[in-house]
Structures are given as C-alpha cells and as structure tokens.
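[SOLVED] Need 3D model of a two-part complex

Original post:
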Amino acid sequence: MNTLTQENNREVTEKVAEKGEKTPAKVYSPNVDVLETEEAILFRVEMPGVDQSSVEISIEKDQLILEGKFVPPTESRGQVRLAEYREGNYFRKFTIGKAIHSDKAVAKMKNGILELTLPKMEPKKTKIEIQK
Amino acid sequence: MLFRILDPQTKANQFWRDFDRLNDELTRSILDSQFGSSSNFPPVNVYTKEDEALVTCLLPGMEADAIDINVKDNLLSIHGKKKAEELAEGTEVHRREIFNGEFHRTLELPFRVDQEHVLAKFTNGVLNIHLPRREEDKPKKVSIIAG
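Solution:
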C-alpha cells in the first residue's frame, strides 16, 4: 500500500457549490510529482498561470489540500482557433500517511510550479513501564 | 477512455475512482503504443484577431531562456528541453506526472507574421506570444464611390 494515498477530487464540485458561486469556475486536477527523501516529503505541482498570491495550501491532520486560483485576463484575446487546454482553478487533495511537521512546511512558487516541502517527523519511541 | 460503466456522478466510492484511474491510464498507454506518443506537449491555445494572433502555451517549470521561438511566414515553432530534476540518493518516487524531455511544436497561423514585431512573454509558467499580421497582408477597406 502506498504511504501517500491520493484522494480523487470528486469533492470539487461540491466544494464550489458550497461557496455559493453562481457560475462555478472550472476546476482542474494539476499534475503532481511526489517524492520522498529521508528527511522530507516533496510535492511539485504544476499550476501554470497561477500567481504566487493565489495559491492556498492547507494541512489538516493528514489531509493536504492544494488550491490555485486562476485569474482570467481582462482584455479580449480574439477568436479561438485552437484550444488544447482550458483555464480554471486547480485543486488536489492528498492524504499523507506519515507524520510530518506541518508548521515547518516550506512552499515556493517558481515558473508555474509549486514546490512544497514537508519535513518528516522522527518517529518517537515511548517506553511504557509495566507497573508491578 | 475504453469504456464507461456508470455515470461518473454516481461513482462515489473509492473502488470506482481507482477503477477510473486504471481505465484512464490503460487507455492512454494503449493509444500511445498504437499511434506513438502524441506530441501534444506543450498544450497551446491560439486566438486570432484581424491584425494579430495570440498563442498561449503552458510550460510550467521552464526557464524563459530555455525556450526557443521561431517565426517564418505563417509558421510558428516552439522548441525547448525540460530537464528532469536530479534526485538525491535514496529518494523514493511516489508519483511522477510532470513532463520532462525535449519538445517541439509547429503551428500554422491563418496569416503571415511580421517577424520583427513578435513579442513573447513568459509569466508564471505561461508563454504568451503576440504575433502581428504583416502590414501588406492586412485587409484593406475599399470605399465605394456613389455614382
């Protein structure tokens, strides 16, 4: 079994509905690399077109939520001739199966890629004495 | 997708999600082996106006100086190489979905381009190329003399 299990983003539509938006923006699942070293778990997430200020990362217990808000351009771009990709928000959710220091997480945004480093927690050993 | 069993909305449980993913990946690998990996990287959008075309292209993780853009007449080619991140020893890979490698795309535009005035901008992993139409090719309005 994978230590890091991904949850599908089936919840996305519900989430948009919750916020009560009239025309829910399209939500896409971004490509992700997940790597694990001895010290940390590293996420690299493709979020082209998303500014650093519109990325939201939240960790709650073992749930990691990555969100990117896309801001559509204001000026008209003309007639669409070819559309191989569509623009919208990004959303992806992961369940992290390892203990991590969520308060020591470091995130960086560079050229449309979000890099998130989650330092792993040393497994603590507690010895329990048996009372006589 | 080779086949669909149920409507996606009804697939709330984990099994169908996993099944969907497997189905997707199988389909993709079968298609790739049959027709060769389609060079659809990077994805582009093309917009045109009467006197200008705009090509937008998703290239997250690229450096601007590693992208090569060439324009000739009505052809635009985008070329580059995306290096794979070097992995430290002992790194365990859980997921690898981000594209690495060389890419080359040539696009045909509906008109010839004024090569001198092409403007390319790269922000947040999106490449925007503004391609103005050649002055001599622009449509000219002909006025009709009433007589």
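Edit: Chain A has a mean pLDDT of 81.
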